[in-house]
Write a structure and sequence with these properties.
The protein is built from 5 helices and 7 strands. It is of the alpha+beta class. Strands 1-7-6-5-4-3-2 form a 7-stranded antiparallel beta sheet. Strand 5 and strand 6 form a beta hairpin.
Length: 158
């Protein structure tokens, strides 16, 4: 399993506020170029986001579904991307003094990704987390009003 930690210099409630805002998903998650909530109740269990992954002229859509949440403590997602299957992404927020230790545990779950899961896939996930968790920390620490307006507008226009 690809597990990575990030210390965020804000409270778990501040981190949760970013995780609970579906319009910020594309700003901190590495991979999607656009995202939009499919349900008005994110991050309630069962709520979904649609996202687009763009690589040059090629693009494809996926859906992320909330499978479990414990506000200000845990968010567990299942990201479905048709060509690869699904992945489980578990974000745990641990109080660390007045800061937050974010623990991200991600692994392929179903489909081709789950079948072909190996150390190379783990290495790619570690690289993804090296980008994703610092992005999350930056958004939380600077206040999510500082997120580039283009990310928010893309997310809302889909």
């Amino acid at each position: 399993m690809a597990v990575r930690n990030q210390l965020v210099r804000r409270s778990p409630a501040a981190v949760w506020a970013v995780l609970a805002d579906p319009t910020l998903y594309g700003a901190w998650v590495v991979g999607p170029s656009e995202s939009a909530p499919l349900d008005d109740v994110w991050p309630a269990v069962g709520s979904r986001l649609r996202y687009t992954v763009q690589l040059g002229p090629w693009s494809a859509e996926g859906v992320t579904t909330v499978r479990h949440q414990d506000p200000i403590r845990e968010l567990e997602l299942e990201a479905a991307f048709k060509p690869l299957g699904t992945a489980r992404i578990f974000l745990q927020l641990r109080p660390w003094g007045e800061e937050t230790l974010v623990v991200c545990d991600e692994h392929p779950l179903r489909g081709l990704g789950g079948t072909l899961h190996n150390s190379a896939v783990e290495a790619v996930l570690q690289l993804r987390h090296r980008g994703m968790l610092p992005r999350l920390a930056k958004i939380v620490e600077e206040g999510h009003a500082d997120v580039p307006r283009a990310h928010r507008l893309q997310s809302r226009s889909m």
